[in-house]
Amino acid sequence: MHDLATLLDRIAELIAGGRADLAAAQAAPLRAREPRDAEAARLHGIALFQLGRVAEAIAALEAALALAPRSVDVLCNLASVRLAAGDSARALEALETALLLAPAHPAVLNGLGNARRATGDLAGARDAYAAATQAQPGHLGAWCNLAAAELALGDHAAGEAAARHALALAPGHPEALFVLGHALAAERRHAEAEAAYAMGECAAPADARFPYQRGLMLEEQKQFARAAEAHARALALDPQLDAALGQLVFLRRQLCDWRDLDALSARLRARVAAGAPGLAPFGFLAEPASAAEQLRCARTHAASIERRVGALRARNAWRNAPGDPHAPLRVGFVANGFGHHPTALLVVAFLEALRDEAVTLHLFSTAPADGSVLQQRLQAAAHAWHDVHAVSSAGLAEAIHAERLDVLLDLDGYCAGAMPEALALRPAPVQVNWLAYPGTLGAPWIDYVIADRIVLPESLHAQFSEAVAWLPRCFQPSDSTRDVATPPSREDCGLPATGVVYACLNNSWKLDPATFERMLAVLRAVPGSVLWLLSAGDGADERLRVEAARRGVDARRLVFAPKLEHAAYLARYRHADLFLDTAPYGAHTTASDALWAGCPVLTVPGATFASRVAASLNHHLGLAQLNAADDAAFVALAVRLGHDPDARRALREAVASHRATGGLFDMRGYARDFAALLARMAGRHRAGLAPAPLH
């Protein structure tokens, strides 16, 4: 019979060699033979944990602890397994006991950092990791964890420094490169971050995380074709990396690369139905999915955010006491677009008018200052301007909470640059989804969504997690102070001297084969007409030309407009006879721009919020006849207008007349109605009432 030490060594070697199954098979009889040996129980627990038998692993390690209550190794192992099981409080308890026994033990300190982070104590986690690096300066894992903790606390420079220290210890180490990429991305140094992830991809070619992160950084740099290739590589390495699937499908739409698009879209929708995590809800809005599917996607995403921040929210335990009912409402707006951005274009005139209502206005800007005229107007409109671009999600939540707001409006939702983790910490008593994200957030921390009865009819309410607060006008404001200049000649814009100009200056990802065919059907029926599109680059324009020719339309009838600064872009609409909307994600800000510039917008209201914005604009402008019942009616009306110059002229005159006299662009009236709606939300909270639909 082998002696005990030899058997324990063999089991330890099996664990180290990745044979947890054999290790567990040998440890079980050894424990039966040696019931008082703590090491046999400890090794058995480790092997069981590696096999995924977590409850049995905890039982074995607790038995080991009963036999050796002062064993630092047992306490650390037990804490790790408890942490993996989601019991962060008891994991912390075990590590604090180990810390008393071994105050400078690097593994204890590193594990303590993990447990503290899991309980929401980010500063305590950072301190524990730092102590681990001091106790063992060569502890690579502690340096990587320290970098991640610094990033979570919003200290990007310290995070980068810790990551670079880890790389100095182990040049080319994948985890150190991964966290360095995150640090550089947090500092918006996207090219450098992409380079770090590229090095990681070379160091760990089988790790799908690296091409996925490279894809995200390439997207930030507008290198969409290379980004799509990176996400495709990630998906090939890990077919279950659903985040890469979602990005790939969205990029294929961006590039107008429709090869196998139906199959990819169906795969994406199936993963949403299965509750797969990691799928970006915003990109999913462009899929031909129902409102119920969008809700499912949003709820899954919100649940993942809840898991990340729930412990910190519990630790903060903020109390949002009702404000003084006799004082002006304290209202906050948080956005990544309070600069030269479409969001600012929509809200600036409204916020200038809102300042005159009984509201104290706080604007929280999460993007770096750009000094634009729009940003200067927003700063002047605000009673308090908060530049929070350099803070973490937790720091943003603290800044919001410190202002004791009555209502907080989220203008980002799940759009690019959003910080939903901050709102998930519940910094304000009433939190509202409004404007930028055209759908439900599926989030328990969002109480209301502001809409109107066209964009969000009663029939869609069941597919929104929020209570709906309906405005008595269009939910979307606009800058009604803009001048529409005289454009260059048609020829200078690349347009023919004569012929009907149909326009669709939406982003390219809003186009799909069905929408494109609807537009081409109009061109086929109106000789000499052209379709004016926004150039997308990366080969997208040429793909559309090839597709048009394949469908029997001369590719020269597609005219691509370059992206221009706003005033020049707005002036171009004077040459457009009719704007043709897209589906299932329609024109939003673009539709408002077209109408303001005098160009009528033709649309088909769909079955989701994102497909109904143009319909709401038309309805509230008094031109509901431009909301076609279906694709056939859309084509028929566009063709009829194409053949009737008098009808086109009368329609443009109607747009101009209604714009001047109707309520769509009346921002003072909008501000009054909006302030009244906010007061009702705050009033319900002050009365101790739960959020409810507000009609």
UniProtKB/TrEMBL annotation:
Keyword Phosphoprotein: no
Gene3D superfamilies reported in the protein's UniProt record: 3.40.50.11380, Glycogen Phosphorylase B (3.40.50.2000), Tetratricopeptide repeat domain (1.25.40.10)
Pfam families referenced in this protein's UniProt entry, alphabetically: Glyco_transf_41, TPR_16
Coiled-coil segments on the chain, per record: none
Pathway: Protein modification; protein glycosylation
Domain O-GlcNAc transferase C-terminal, chain residue ranges per copy: 256-478, 489-673
Stored InterPro entries: OGT/SEC/SPY_C, TPR-like_helical_dom_sf, TPR_rpt
E.C. no: 2.4.1.255
GO terms assigned for molecular function: protein O-acetylglucosaminyltransferase activity
Lineage: Bacteria, Pseudomonadati, Pseudomonadota, Gammaproteobacteria, Lysobacterales
SUPFAM superfamilies documented for this protein: TPR-like, UDP-Glycosyltransferase/glycogen phosphorylase
Protein name (database record): protein O-GlcNAc transferase
PROSITE patterns: TPR
TPR repeat feature ranges: 38-71, 72-105, 208-241
PANTHER family: PTHR44998, UDP-N-ACETYLGLUCOSAMINE--PEPTIDE N-ACETYLGLUCOSAMINYLTRANSFERASE 110 KDA SUBUNIT
Keyword list, A-Z: Glycosyltransferase, Repeat, TPR repeat, Transferase
The keyword Cell inner membrane is annotated on this UniProt entry: no
Family the entry assigns: Belongs to the glycosyltransferase 41 family. O-GlcNAc transferase subfamily.
Source taxon at top rank: Bacteria
